[in-house]
Amino acid sequence: MPKTVTATRQLKAPPERVFRAWTDPADVKRWFKPTRLIMDAKVDGLWHSEVEWQGKRWPHYGRFTRLERPRLFEQTWMSEATHGLETVVRVELEPKGGGTEVRLTHSGLPDDEAENHRKGWEQILSSLDDLR
Question: Which residue, of 10, 89, 90, 109, has the fewest CB within 10 Å?
Fold first, then answer.
């Protein structure tokens, strides 16, 4: 049965800046630090990133399904850790407290990988704390 996980984080940066951090390839390279990145940030545009973690390269890929600047984007997400399933990552950006509340929802995950993805997304969102 597919699982859904959610991670939230309050950031100091405004929504437009956070949106750009996720959708502009130069910005993604700065904070996500992929070893490889190909990104066409438009609806039906494809993306591919590869990161090193625990001594292994992890390719991830998908396509953008929604881009509503500066409040929402959605993309499909596939990797070895999704067992090849096409999952969906939805990121909602809400102005709050002079910054942005980020709510990330990852749905369609295999049971045995849901908790790892939740922890991973929390760590990834915390890496955006210094975004200006």
Answer: 10
Mean pLDDT on 94-103: 97
Predicted TM-score of the model (pTM): 0.95
Cβ-based neighbour number of residue 116 at 10 Å: 12
Number of H helices and E strands in the chain, helices first, is 3, 7
111 secondary structure, DSSP code: G
* Environment class of 44 (CB within 10 Å of its CB; exposed 0-12, middle 13-18, buried 19+): exposed
Nearest to 130 by CA among 17, 49, 8: 17
Q: What is the CATH number of domain 3-126?
A: 3.30.530.20
Rounded to 5 degrees, φ, ψ at 126 are -65, -25
Whole-angstrom distance, CA of residue 3 vs CA of residue 22: 23
Q: Which residues of 70-89 are buried (b: 16+ CB within 10 A; e: fewer)?
A: bebbbbbbbbebbeeeebbb
pLDDT band at 54 (very low <50, low <70, confident <90, very high): confident
Instruction: Tell me the CA distances in angstroms from 8 to 19, 72, 96, one per residue in order.
Output: 15, 14, 13
